[in-house]
Write a structure and sequence with these properties.
The chain is of the alpha+beta class. It contains 2 helices and 6 strands, in the order βαββββαβ.
């Protein structure tokens, strides 16, 4: 199973992060399949790759450390394929999502920690 993790800290209000996060993931070709106040799960839209290569994104918004201006989000991006090559589909989707988070104009990226 391919699995990539990342921790993002962004300058945004915790009230807006959930909506902005959903919009960002949808722009990366993901459907939101489960959402609560501090957790979000999205699945890649089928049709472009084999079923086992479809990527799932799980995001935990850390509300315990959130302030009015800063929010920390923990991402797990995974699929069922074996990561036999460094340039696999899951890695490419991880890079796409990471770049979309970094480039989002509705918040400022403060820190990124790749796992």
């Amino acid at each position: 199973m391919a699995r990539y993790t990342c921790l993002f800290t962004v300058a945004a209000s915790v009230g807006n992060v959930q909506r902005l996060l959903s919009e960002t993931l949808e722009s990366c070709n993901f459907d939101i399949i489960y959402e609560t106040g501090d957790y979000l799960m999205a699945r890649e839209v089928p049709g472009n790759v084999a079923f086992t290569q479809l990527v799932t994104v799980e995001v935990l918004v850390d509300k315990t450390l959130a302030t009015d201006r800063e929010v920390r989000m923990s991402f797990v991006i995974k699929n069922e394929e074996l990561p036999l090559q460094t340039n696999n589909h899951c890695r490419r989707m991880y890079e796409l999502v990471s770049q979309a988070i970094a480039d989002n104009r509705h918040w400022s990226l403060i820190d990124t920690v790749a796992g």
